[in-house]
Amino acid sequence: MSQKIIPVHSDDKHTHEHAGGRACMSRRQWLLSGGSSLLMVSLGGLPGLADAAQALKATYPRQKIGNLSALKEGVPVDFNYPYPDVRNILVKLGVPAGAGVGVSKDIVAFNQQCTHMGGPLDGTYKPQHQVLGPCPLHLTTFDLTHHGMVASGHATESLPQIVLEVKGDDIYAVGVMGLVYGYNAMTAERSA
Q1: pTM over 0.90
Q2: 5, 76, 87, 114: most buried, per Cβ within 10 A?
Q3: For 70-82, what is each residue's pLDDT tens digit?
């Protein structure tokens, strides 16, 4: 048994009413309402959202990792943070980036282990595209201008981004956004 669909308003081709008198939302209206809800949440329309974002960032002791004057565009600087065996890069991208610091907001730092299976990303920075990768295990590449999000490959999570602060000419690492591969939690006290 099929239901007859009748337009509710002749000028609104996206709102329909089933023969039983029940109004129906079109796919477009449903998607737009979902997008509006997402926008409200992302703009802080719900209480406690700032607390949730803060929970994603682990704070560590402040550690100097470089100098603004020593950075050259497209040339990454290796450093370990927050633990001696966690490898990261600090890089001046040359284009503004999410959570970037410096005058041009183009200085960022990221962990160098693929979030898929922990493959090493050391030496894979591509300055012409501002990406890290591909991972030698499954070819995942990460976009450093967009918080280390996956550009291609098998990984489903962004690279952990190192939170940076600038004081004068000094660049400091002060926290980590995300979970470094191989750790079940990012805490100031390293678990055994």
Answers
A1: no
A2: 114
A3: 999 999 999 999 9
Residue 16 structural domain:
5-51
Give the three-state DSSP class for 69. helix
Residue 187 lies in a domain: no
> Are 87 and 172 in a shared domain?
yes
Tens digit of each residue's pLDDT (9 = 90 or more) over 89-140: 999 999 999 999 999 999 999 999 999 999 999 999 999 999 999 999 999 9
Please choose, from the candidates 134, 137, 140, the residue with its C-alpha nearest in 3D space to the C-alpha of residue 158. 140
Strands 131-132 and 57-67: unpaired
Are 140 and 122 in the same domain?
yes
CB within 8 Å of 95: residues ≥ 6 apart: 106, 130, 145
**Number of domains into which the chain is organized:** 2
Residue 82: asked if its preceding bond is cis (omega within 30°), the reply is yes
